[in-house]
Design goal:
Its EC number is 3.5.1.116. This protein is 34% helix and 24% strand. The chain has helices spanning 17-28, 45-60, 105-121, 147-152, 156-162, 173-179, 212-216, 254-271, 309-330, 350-362, 378-381, 408-427; strands at 38-40, 64-67, 73-77, 86-92, 95-99, 129-134, 199-207, 220-226, 228-237, 241-242, 278-287, 293-294, 297-306, 333-342, 346-347, 367-372, 387-392. Helix 1 (17-28) packs antiparallel against helix 3 (105-121) and helix 3 crosses helix 12 (408-427). It is of the alpha+beta class and 428 residues long. Strands 2, 3, 4, 6, 7, 8, 15, 16 and 17 form a nine-stranded mixed beta sheet that branches. The structure holds glyoxylic acid and manganese (II) ion (3 copies).
Length: 428
């Protein structure tokens, strides 16, 4: 590798931790729930404000900013060989209800700071460097995870589905996108698709969302693979009725069918006998939702994941069989069993793992290889680019709750490793 404009002294990589923490704190105020919780839902007023905040920071960093039809935001620093495939980095800033301020955010604000770090060091990239803020990594509003990156990676199924997708208030995806200033005059979202090979590398910085790095006192996690996620929506329907008047033998309670299925999910997951298999019923709704009315409808959303795709698929099949059996036994209708997504796992690319390892080593930071049990936009970027992820420790492994926290020092270490990794990959 030729390294013409490489910073002479790596210790010159200085992170402005004070500004970075201020940005993290300020971004957390764009929230629909009170601090310390953060709730930032796709295309909401707060999301639009947060997007402006990010675009401004990209502008201050001297990046040229573009947005696509669903609001993926790209900030580019042109390299001295701009015709080469660029090196990209980024994450998301949407936040699930009552979550914290670091998930995703560290990988967006940290990426912009990594660019600032490189600029301050005098580095000149050969390949262009691009920071990406992905639209809706979280499935909160439209039920689809990694919406922006999934579409970028060319999911025609999603492109088609989004024409008919609505949120819980029956607002269509396209109307919501338009209200935030996107998808103007467009029905066809295939303009978001990126060609395979457009990036020579993609690297995402993220809090670990698990306890290992903190417990072991290790600064940097180098992700080798991302577990395979899936999600399922289920509806049961019964006759409902008066909670006093309808006697037990005459009921077909949609709520009890849901309760039984929730327990079946747990059973099938545990029966896999692998600690890596997980399943969660995070949404369980009863209709009409009155204490003195037998539920006539129930709705469940099931999340299940595994590092082993076949084992995860077996769990999905068992859940389906249980749903059918429970409906029959309880004489309710299984009116929907929809697998929303059933994604394969993704592997990090060797060349990026090596660059992240070398960077950690040169910065004297203890590091270890690990897998990601959470999913990330990297899962989809891996379809169009060699991919890698950098994890940093977070307090007790907490995530998706207000107590989520990473220290300034850990964030700064992650930003340095990201900056050096981007520098190396840009010269490659
Ligand atoms: C994404 O936030 C996930 O649930 O892994
Ligand atoms: Mn998340
Ligand atoms: Mn995240
Ligand atoms: Mn995530």
């Amino acid at each position: 590798i030729q390294e013409p404009h490489f910073p002479n002294s790596l210790s010159l990589l200085s992170v402005d931790t004070l500004s970075l923490q201020k940005q993290i704190d300020e971004l957390s105020t764009f929230s629909d729930t009170p601090a310390p919780s953060v709730t930032r839902i796709l295309y909401s007023e707060k999301d639009v404000l947060a997007r402006s905040f990010i675009k401004n920071l990209m502008g201050f960093a001297g990046l040229s900013v573009r947005e696509d039809a669903v609001g993926n935001i790209f900030g580019r620093w042109d390299g001295y060989e701009p015709e080469l495939a660029a090196v990209s980095t980024g994450s998301h800033i949407d936040a699930i209800p009552y979550s914290g301020k670091y998930d995703g955010v560290v990988g967006v604000l940290g990426a912009i700071e990594a660019i600032n770090v490189l600029q301050r060091s005098g580095f000149k990239p050969k390949r262009s460097l691009e920071v990406i803020m992905f639209t809706s990594e979280e499935p909160t509003r439209f039920g689809i995870s990694c919406l922006g990156s999934r579409l970028m990676a060319g999911s025609e199924a999603l492109e088609k589905a989004l024409k008919k997708t609505v949120d819980s208030k029956n607002i269509s995806f396209l109307d919501a996108a338009r209200s935030a200033g996107y998808a103007k005059g467009e029905e066809d979202l295939s303009s978001v698709f990126l060609k395979k090979g457009i990036y020579s590398a993609f690297v995402e910085l993220h809090i670990e969302q698990g306890p290992i790095l903190e417990e072991e006192g290790i600064s940097i996690g180098i992700v080798t693979a991302i577990a395979a996620p899936a999600s399922i929506k289920v509806d049961f329907e019964g006759n409902g009725g008066h909670a006093g008047a309808v006697l037990m033998p005459n009921r077909n309670d949609a709520g009890l069918a849901a309760a039984e299925l929730a327990l079946a999910v747990e059973k099938h997951v545990l029966d896999s006998e692998s600690i890596d298999t997980v399943g969660t019923v995070g949404i369980l709704e009863l209709h009409p939702g009155a204490i003195n009315s037998i539920p006539s409808k129930s709705h469940l959303e099931i999340d299940t994941r595994d590092i082993d795709e076949d084992r995860r698929n077996t769990v999905i099949e068992k859940i389906h069989h249980s749903a059918l059996a429970i409906a029959q036994k309880r004489d309710v209708k299984l009116s929907e069993f929809k697998i929303v997504n059933q994604d394969p796992p993704a592997l990090s690319h060797d060349s990026i793992i090596k660059a992240m390892e070398a960077s950690s080593q040169e910065l004297n930071l203890a590091h270890k290889l690990m897998i990601s049990r959470a999913y990330h936009d990297s899962l989809f970027m891996a379809r169009i680019s060699p991919m890698g992820m950098i994890f940093i420790p977070c307090y007790k492994g907490y995530s998706h709750k207000p107590e989520e926290f990473s220290s300034n020092e850990d964030i700064a270490n992650g930003v340095k490793v990201l900056a050096l990794t981007l520098a190396k990959l840009s010269l490659y």
